[in-house]
Known about the structure:
The complex is a heterodimer of chains A (112) and B (110).
Chain A: E1 5-7, E2 10-13, E3 19-24, E4 31-37, E5 44-50, E6 53-56, E7 65-68, E8 75-79, E9 88-95, E10 102-103, E11 107-111
Chain B: E1 5-7, E2 10-14, E3 19-24, E4 31-37, E5 43-50, E6 55-58, E7 61-66, E8 71-76, E9 85-92, E10 98-100, E11 104-109
Parallel strand pairs in B: 2-11
Antiparallel strand pairs in B: 1-3, 3-8, 4-5, 4-9, 6-7, 7-8, 9-10, 9-11
Amino acid sequence: EAGVAQSPRYKIIEKRQSVAFWCNPISGHATLYWYQQILGQGPKLLIQFQNNGVVDDSQLPKDRFSAERLKGVDSTLKIQPAKLEDSAVYLCASSEEAYEQYFGPGTRLTVT
Amino acid sequence: SQQGEEDPQALSIQEGENATMNCSYKTSINNLQWYRQNSGRGLVHLILIRSNEREKHSGRLRVTLDTSKKSSSLLITASRAADTASYFCATDGGRRALTFGSGTRLQVQP
């Protein structure tokens, strides 16, 4: 089966600019997650969707980050405006009823 | 915040040797999972152990869980150069979202 798709793979922007990331989960997976992984650290959950509803966004910096999952399939994560500390890899994952999560290749964001 | 802490932070061994990584966590869990991340690649699920299990095996992997000590260990036997990667433990507190540790970087020398 096809894996989790993410685009773009790399993005370089200047601080205060906006950026958006796209994720297409594995077909049929109801749950979708966005994680932020700063260099040298483990991934940190930003937001969790169940179908098109938000389950957990407690660690999402809502003053600058937003995410949506239209029709319970694809999802976009947006940062506006970006800060230097947002430089990280943004990982999308999906899961079905089982607990195992399938991760995409990630988007490496560099904010200069 | 990170739930788990892996120990050691980095480990270098020779091919054929065993590698042991430890993970400690802070709050109660539903299950604990181990993931591998190769350089430039995404995270790959290795093994899951439920809170009522004490040990689990999968191929060359052996995972133990001690909920009284809030700790887990991952043993990779007969390591190969291809096992070179970062290994993360991740805990599921019941809502399926994972809380990852800081990872152990394993280097297997051929």
